[in-house]
Amino acid sequence: MAENGPLTTGPIHLTLMMGPQLAVPVAQEVADSLLSVQVTVASGQRSGFQLAFDLAKGSLISNSLLPGGYFDPKTRVIITVTAQGTPTVLMDGVIIRQEVGISNQPGQSTLTVTGEDLTVLMDLDERAAVPYPAMSPAARVQAIIAQYAQYGIRPLVVPELIPQTPMPTQRVDFQKGTDLAYINQLAQANGYAFYLDPGPVPGQSRAYWGPEVRLGEPQHALNVNMDGLSTVDQLTFAFDGTAREQPEARIQLPATRVSSILPVPEVSILRPQLAQRPAPALKKTVIGDTAKKDSGQGIAEALAKAAESADAVTGSGQLDVVRYGYLLRARELVGVRGAGITYDGRYYVKSVTHNLQRGSYTQNFTLAREGLIALEPTVVP
Fold first, then answer.
1. Do residues 171 and 133 touch, judged by C-beta distance below 8 A?
2. Strands 205-210 and 153-157: what pairing?
3. Do the bridges between strand 283-286 and strand 245-248 make them parallel or antiparallel, or are there none, so unpaired?
């Protein structure tokens, strides 16, 4: 998603494109019938959207487009907002469901379509047993994503931190289930995230498979409790002392058949630290089914499990985009100011829900990090 400048002047425009595979701008009558748009973008899970249209009797939608299949499942939908001349693609997905509400009251009948991003196309066909001899998890993911290039999907695959390429004489890995399920399985086993990032232009998406991006410059800070400088009305934080786990994995040495506990690396090699005082791991867990795996797989799974439970501190809130001055982006860092010594500092933006109606654009968001107190003495505005 492109970096956006401060929204100090001018309106925010929304562009809706739809089509069987290649989406094109919708007719003006369809755009005029659009009542609301909601887009949810989150780390580690599929993004989704919902569009609500006015279903007036005798309208183009009611008489022609709806019966003609224009809103049928698998129709491609691209949603773009343009602020001060800079377009940002919020969603590139397909419709999976439609609902029609008919009312006796004039102007109250609606058509609501719900959809998900293009990863839904990777979740339609079950594979029986696809072999990947001598291929690392990253190489397998790269090969699978390449099959979806006709949808404008470009892979960005980060090699796994713990090498796991098996010798063909030792083991051949097979894919069972859908492409999406297998990609997510490999991501989970390595503590990685998999998601599609739409843009930078309509019709293109980046398929990211790698660790959550917790490095780099944070987005413009969320200010709370700072009088006229506040950009967020309210922020709620929670510290769950039982969230973090200390996993243990064992493997069996083939030569001696003696089991051995694997050393688990520091979580910070996968998720850079954001807080001075990380939450302690109060729970100890044992990872199952690692005895017959090689040490690389066992260490990777233990590290992934430790990273998965590391975010003991979460935050949530809502902002008005015009007041904030920018579009808050999920899956990146953001600073928080005004919440006090304990909760100020950098956070990873886990999810953002865009809510658009005529004259209104708000965002609900959730934040996460591993502990309390900022690493840096000040937060960049």
1. no
2. parallel
3. parallel
